Amino acid sequence: MATPADALCRPLEILDKMEIPYVVGGSTASSVHGIPRTTNDVDVVVDLAHDQIPELVSELKTDFYVDADMIRKALALGRAFNIVHFQSAFKCDLFPLHTDEFSRAEFGRRRFAVITSLGPEPIQCAIASAEDTMLRKLQWYRAGGETSERQWNDLRGMLRASGDKLDREYLRKWAKHLRVDDLWERLLNE
After folding, report:
1. Which residues have a Cβ under 8 Å from the Cβ of 71 and sit 6 or more positions away?
2. Where are the domains of the chain?
3. Residue 162 and residue 129: Cα distance in Å, rounded?
4. Which residues pair with 139 in a beta bridge?
5. What is the pLDDT of residues 78-90, one digit of tens each?
6. Mean pLDDT, to the nearest integer, of 61-77?
7. Could you count the other beta carbons within 10 Å of the beta carbon of residue 77?
8. Which of 123, 121, 129 is nearest to 105 (CA)?
9. DSSP for 23-61?
10. Which CATH number applies to 4-128?
11. What is the share, in percent, of the chain residues with pLDDT greater than 70?
12. 147-163: per-residue pLDDT in tens?
C-alpha cells in the first residue's frame, strides 16, 4: 500500500533532477521541529520557472494527477497548485516562491533534515527552519481568524521542542514585519 512518503519522494526526486530549488514547509516541517502529527498534504515552495512546466508535467504525469494549464494559471496569480498521487490519493500543494523580502529570507535559510512523520521510510529533503515555519504558522493562524487549535498546537509543540535553539531576534524582527508580533508574544507568554 502506498504511503504519503511515496507520494512525496517522487516529486522531490524530479525537482532535484530538474534542479528546481524547493523547501518543504507547513505541518510537515512543524512535525520535524516539534510534535509529529498526521497531515492530509505536504506544502512545498518551489522556485519554478514557466518554461519548466512542460518537463515537470511530463515527469509527474505517470504517477500523479497534474494539469499544466492549472500550473500556468497558478504561477501567473502567485498561487499554489496541487498534484495528487494516484496510488495513495495523497496531495502535494506546490507554492510558487514569492519575491518579497521574507519569502527570500525564508527560502535562503532552508536546510536538509529527515522527515519521519509520513511513513516507514525517512525522507531527507530541504525543509523550512523552525523559525520560518513558526512565522508562517502565525500568519496562517491570523489569516484563519485565530481559531485553528491545530495551528496553535503546532506552534506550542515547536516552541517546546526547539525553544532554546530558536533565534529569538530573527523571530521578533520578522514577526513585527509580518504583523504577527502580538501572536508571537502571546505564544511566549502561555
Report:
1. 48, 53, 56, 57, 81
2. 4-128, 131-189
3. 11
4. none
5. 999 999 999 988 8
6. 96
7. 10
8. 129
9. EEEHHHHHHHHS-----SEEEEEE---GGGHHHHHHHHT
10. 3.30.460
11. 99
12. 999 999 999 999 999 87
